[in-house]
């Protein structure tokens, strides 16, 4: 979403304001600041007030995100570069240590080095004050490195504001996050602590150095008593989608390894862009949180962009399908299992997000708790915050219901396929709504299930959780609205006899649909591949786990498409760093090892002439080059000229179907989408054919002449 005036306060005064909100919201308690800092905020608000809205709806006039920073003075550059070199030397020495604890804590130091490296290399310091902050960040990195060299790590036993780091699985880069450790926290003992995950607002200038500085100096909007607060970076300003989503999960897992987090008292919270992220996490991961408190933000794509951005939308049919990945309204049913407290300012245009969710929940028979800050624009009213904290405290006392007796679950993709003890293994068709309700009846030793659009389900009740009689088999009563064997209800009704619980009071059972009948057990193994969790597409899904870019070492057969493929590779590397704050791993096609194939999605650019790895697999892909590479074949009937057309696609790697191979594509939204977080959704489905005679621009990699989804067995429809 566009940056807001409120974000200018929250994120170190470093982002662009909304034209509709040109003044600081008086209802939000303002943090202490010098008059010069206040002047800078007001200057920002005035000078950039027209930087969003219709001005950001022109695809051929896209401003840079992040913006270009200031030129460093030579003394400042020398000081930062010299300090960085010395810090890197200390980190190199730490890497030589054989002490496992030292090795595990290096990311806590390296985050400072990487932040300053990028700030210098890519001009990502935006004011003179940012230079001073960078020096503070660098100094903290030195202090940590020196402490670790002496076998000490005082920040790991520190209360208050602490910045931590972890190495991300996606691209091996170190990523920062902040923690507020309450003064009451005890570093000894067994007590576990409530933990609130707070998702920040949009800040186009909130690059690593400035984020780290803020997390070193500001508690933030919330700091409940006796509560750990985790502040994920989210890989910058992507509304916690894609790699930003994984960053939140990785940061939380790292925090669990460092602090005593109570698994049953983790909440997800956020405001503005963070409110959007909060809606997404609540509906996608309903079994993880004891509560969710989304504030403002957006909850879906089309209506928000029309009402907030004033944008006239002309989506393709597959873009509309792909909105279902992050549009929360379609998943509103999942809030049946997540206590949710929404907040909006009465005068905030972003109240639209909660209004949309309120309507969607109402259609599911659910009533949203929606607190309204009176006469408030884009800010959290103090009285409303008091109410939110009181309600959350009561919910935290109860904790998460680990084993709810009833689950309502909706999904459109196997990327999001689990709620508590229920997992959806197969869908009838991706991007159509699929629903499951499941209820445990202890007195009848029965699970009652209704499904629509689902072909495979797994039940997993852990030790001590199964409420069933241990000497009796469990009955599964299933009603399937995907079939119409029952003329009265339009549903297929069955009773299945499932295994008994185990002696530890756990129970596990898998069922699948065969034709119109449901059967106990997993689907019999066949030679064909099928869409499943983590290998279900679309193209953008490959960038939510570890990936390696496979660069061509040879020359393509067709000069135009060869140049285009290499340009798209460069575009991915550049934009991955800018928008997902990572250093993409790039290897030549001749360097790909068995370990790479086993552990990583492979993002392959070129054609069978230029890329040796692509040559080794392209005959096993559903879209292929002809033998002489004069054409690209889409199924049996369609051929396009390979001299000017390039295929892009995602497909299970023929050398390892547990990982993807992606052909000629990075993440599919481009520079135009950076201007509003609601636009940051997939632009291409599982495959497409690109006419490269139309130059790539801020919207598309070229002219999309055909595109579509593979079916549930990865075949062309």
TrEMBL record:
On whether GTP-binding is a keyword of this UniProt record, the answer is no
| Segments traversing the membrane | none
Family matches, as InterPro entries: AB_hydrolase_fold (IPR029058), Peptidase_S9_cat (IPR001375), Plant_Biomass_Hydrol_Est (IPR050955)
- Every copy of the Peptidase S9 prolyl oligopeptidase catalytic domain together lies at 247-381
Q: Which UniProt keywords apply?
A: Coiled coil, Signal
Methyltransferase as a keyword of this entry, yes or no, is no
Q: Any coiled-coil ranges, and where?
A: 77-104
Q: Which SUPFAM superfamilies match?
A: alpha/beta-Hydrolases (SSF53474)
Q: What is this protein called?
A: Peptidase S9 prolyl oligopeptidase catalytic domain-containing protein
The organism's taxonomic lineage, starting at the top = Bacteria, Pseudomonadati, Planctomycetota, Planctomycetia, Pirellulales
């Amino acid at each position: 979403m566009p940056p807001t005036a409120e974000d200018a306060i929250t994120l170190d005064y470093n982002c662009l304001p909304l034209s509709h909100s040109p003044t600081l919201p008086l209802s939000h308690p303002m943090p202490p600041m010098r008059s010069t800092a206040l002047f800078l905020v007001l200057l920002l608000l005035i000078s950039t007030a027209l930087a969003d809205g219709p001005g950001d709806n022109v695809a051929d006039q896209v401003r840079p995100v992040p913006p270009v920073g200031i030129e460093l003075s030579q003394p400042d550059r020398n000081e930062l570069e010299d300090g960085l070199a010395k810090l890197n030397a200390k980190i190199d020495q730490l890497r030589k240590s054989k002490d496992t604890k030292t090795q595990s804590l290096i990311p806590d130091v390296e985050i400072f080095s990487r932040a300053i490296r990028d700030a210098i290399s890519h001009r990502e310091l935006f004011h003179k004050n940012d230079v001073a902050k960078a020096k503070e960040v660098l100094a903290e990195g030195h202090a940590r490195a020196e402490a670790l060299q002496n076998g000490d790590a005082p920040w790991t036993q520190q209360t208050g504001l602490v910045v931590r780091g972890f190495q991300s699985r996606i691209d091996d880069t170190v990523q920062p996050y902040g923690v507020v450790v309450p003064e009451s926290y005890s570093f000894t003992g067994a007590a576990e602590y409530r933990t609130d995950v707070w998702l920040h607002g949009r800040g186009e200038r909130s690059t690593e150095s400035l984020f780290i500085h803020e997390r070193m100096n500001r508690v933030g909007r919330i700091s409940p008593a006796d509560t750990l607060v985790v502040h994920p970076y989210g890989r910058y300003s992507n509304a916690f989608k894609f790699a930003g989503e994984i960053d939140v999960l990785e940061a939380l897992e790292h925090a669990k390894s460092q602090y005593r987090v109570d698994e049953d008292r983790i909440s997800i919270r956020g405001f503005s862009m963070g409110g959007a992220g909060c809606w997404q996490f609540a509906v996608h991961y309903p079994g993880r949180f004891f509560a969710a408190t989304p504030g403002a933000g957006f909850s879906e794509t089309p209506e928000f962009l029309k009402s907030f951005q004033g944008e006239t939308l002309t989506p393709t049919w597959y873009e509309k399908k792909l909105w279902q990945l992050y549009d929360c309204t379609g998943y509103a049913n999942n809030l049946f299992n997540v206590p949710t407290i929404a907040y909006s300012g009465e005068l905030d245009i972003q109240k639209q997000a909660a209004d949309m969710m309120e309507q969607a929940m109402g259609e599911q028979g659910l009533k949203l708790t929606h607190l309204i800050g009176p006469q408030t624009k884009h800010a959290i009213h103090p009285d409303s915050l008091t109410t939110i904290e009181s309600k959350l405290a009561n919910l935290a006392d109860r904790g998460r219901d680990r084993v709810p007796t009833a689950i309502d679950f909706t999904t459109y993709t196997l990327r999001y396929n689990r709620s508590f003890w229920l997992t959806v293994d197969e869908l009838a068709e991706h991007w159509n709504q699929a629903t499951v309700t499941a209820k445990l009846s202890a007195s009848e030793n029965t699970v009652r299930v209704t499904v629509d659009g689902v072909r495979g389900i797994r039940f997993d009740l852990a030790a001590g959780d199964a409420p069933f009689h241990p000497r009796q088999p469990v009955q599964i009563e299933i009603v399937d609205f995907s079939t119409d064997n029952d003329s009265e209800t339009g549903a297929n009704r069955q009773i299945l006899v499932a295994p008994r619980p185990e002696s530890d009071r756990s129970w596990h059972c898998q069922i699948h649909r065969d034709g119109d009948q449901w059967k106990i057990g997993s689907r019999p193994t066949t030679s064909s591949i099928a869409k499943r969790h983590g290998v279900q597409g679309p193209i953008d899904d490959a960038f939510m786990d570890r990936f390696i870019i496979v660069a061509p070492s040879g020359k393509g057969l067709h000069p135009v498409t060869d140049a285009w493929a290499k340009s798209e590779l460069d575009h991915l590397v550049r934009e991955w760093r800018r928008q997902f704050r990572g250093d993409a791993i790039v290897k030549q096609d001749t360097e790909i090892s068995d370990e790479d194939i086993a552990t990583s999605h492979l993002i392959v650019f070129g054609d069978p002439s230029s890329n040796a790895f692509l040559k080794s697999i392209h005959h096993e892909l559903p879209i292929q080059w002809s033998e002489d590479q004069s054409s690209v074949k889409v199924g049996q009937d369609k051929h396009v000229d390979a001299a000017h057309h390039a295929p892009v696609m995602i497909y299970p790697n023929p050398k390892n179907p547990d990982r993807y191979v992606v052909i000629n594509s990075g993440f599919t939204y481009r520079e135009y989408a950076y201007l509003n977080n609601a636009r940051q959704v997939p632009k291409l489905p599982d495959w497409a054919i690109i006419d490269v005679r139309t130059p790539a621009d801020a919207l598309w990699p070229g002219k999309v002449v055909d595109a579509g989804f593979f079916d549930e067995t990865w075949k062309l429809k």
